[in-house]
Amino acid sequence: MAKYSSKINKIRTFALSLIFIGFLVMYLGIIFKSHPIVMTIFMLLGLLCIIASTGVYLWIGMLSTKTVQVLCPSCQKPTKILGRVDICMHCNEALTLDKSLEGKTFNKKYNQRQL
Ligand SMILES: [Zn+2]
């Protein structure tokens, strides 16, 4: 089975990379110090990325309240499920809250249908 990471982890990685991109873009702006307009554009773009990542972090916070905590049947550790199907944070075991999907191969489509 292909490796999937749990959805919340994925979103968190995305938010983190947005911050890095933001700082990188702002750093590029410093290189163009002699061109104030170019520098301002880079600074604004960098700032936008950082603002966007803050928004994503807020979104994670909201999503976290909707997750269901379960004990993973595979590794016996508590993990969180978001949506109908998700992946155990510890062992990448496919988990579902929907009895009709139990035993079926993990498929990302199940989530898309719900959204
Ligand atoms: Zn597990």
TrEMBL record:
One of its GO terms (cellular component) is plasma membrane. This is UPF0295 protein D1953_19445. Keywords: Cell membrane, Membrane, Transmembrane, Transmembrane helix. It is found in: Cell membrane. Belongs to the UPF0295 family. It holds the Pfam family DUF2614. It is a multi-pass membrane protein. The chain crosses the membrane at residues 12-31, 37-60.
